[in-house]
Amino acid sequence: MPKLKRSEEEEIARRIRANIAGRKTYLGVSHDELAYAARVSPATLYNHLNRPGDIRLAELIRLSQKLGLSLKQMILCEE
C-alpha cells in the first residue's frame, strides 16, 4: 500500500513535537521542569506531546516562553 500524505494538522503536530523535544534537549530542561512551566502534571505534558492538538493555547504559550521560542517558531519551524 502506498504511503498517504500527512494532513496539515498532522504536519503541524509533528513540528510542535519536534520543536519542543529539540529545544528541551538543547536547553537541558527536564520533562518535570517543562510540565511545571506549563502548569500541568508531567503525565498531562506527556499526553500533550503525543497529541499536540490537545494542548491549550495558554499551555502552548507557557511552553514557548520556557523554551525561548515564539508561537510562530514552534509551529512553523522558523528562526
Layout: helices, strands, pairs:
Elements (H helix, E strand, L loop, with lengths): L7 H20 L3 H8 L3 H9 L6 H11 L3 H6 L3
Helix pairs in contact: 2-3, 2-4
Overall pLDDT confidence? 87
- In which range does the helix fraction lie? 55-70%
Distance between the termini: 37 Å
The Rg value, from CA coordinates, equals 13 Å
Q: Count every helix, treating DSSP H or I runs of 4 or more residues as helices.
A: 5
Number of E-type strands:
0
Q: Estimate what percentage of residues fall within beta strands.
A: under 5%
- Structural class per helix/strand content? mainly alpha
Walkthrough of the structure:
It is a single chain. With 79 residues, the protein is mostly helical. Helices cover 68% and strands 0% of the residues. The protein has helices at residues 8-27, 31-38, 42-50, 57-67, 71-76. Helix 2 (31-38) crosses helix 3 and helix 2 packs across helix 4. It is globular, with a radius of gyration of 13 Å. The model has no long low-confidence stretch (mean pLDDT 87).
